[in-house]
Amino acid sequence: MNTWIAAALASLVSLPAIAADALPPRVQQVTFKSEVGSVQFKQKIKGYQTAEYKLVAKAGQTLTVDFKSSNTSAYFNVAAPGADEALFNGSIMGDHFAAAVPADGEYTVQVYLMRNAARRQAVASYSLSLWLSDNASADAKKPATKSP
Q1: Rounded distance, CA 146 to CA 148, Å?
Q2: Residue 142: CB atoms within 10 Å
Q3: Number of domains making up the chain
Q4: 42: domain CATH number?
Q5: Domain range for residue 118?
Q6: How many Cβ atoms from other residues are within 10 Å of residue 68's Cβ?
Q7: Number of helical (H) and strand (E) elements in the chain, helices listed first
Q8: pTM for this predicted structure
C-alpha cells in the first residue's frame, strides 16, 4: 500500500515538469513581398516557451539569420523540411547563420531557452532578422551590419 501511494505521489509531482516541456510553440508564418526579402521580429520568450518562424524557400536560395538576445541562454535552430537533425544549432554554432538551403520547402527557425534558464522561468527579449535571397545576390540584398 505504501509503495502504491509513493508511486502515485511521485507521478503527481512530475506532472508540472512534463506539462512545462509540452508547451505549444508560438508559430509565426513568415512571408515576403516577393520570393526574396527580409523581415525582423522583436519578441520575448519565457521558460519552456519556444517561438517558431516558418518560411518557404527554394533550393539554392540563401537564408540568413541574425539573432540577438538579452539572455545568454537563448538560442535558435534552423530546421530543413523533413530533416531529422537541425541544419544549424545555435547553442553550438553561434548567433549568425547564412547558407544556401539544400531543398525546396518550409524551413523553421526555432528560438528557445536552454534548460538551465527555462526551468527558472527566465525571460529572453530578442531580435531575429531573416533574409531570403537568390544565391548570387545574397550579399547585395543583406543590409550592412556592424561586427561585435
Answers
A1: 6
A2: 16
A3: 1
A4: 2.60.120.380
A5: 25-139
A6: 14
A7: 4, 9
A8: 0.76
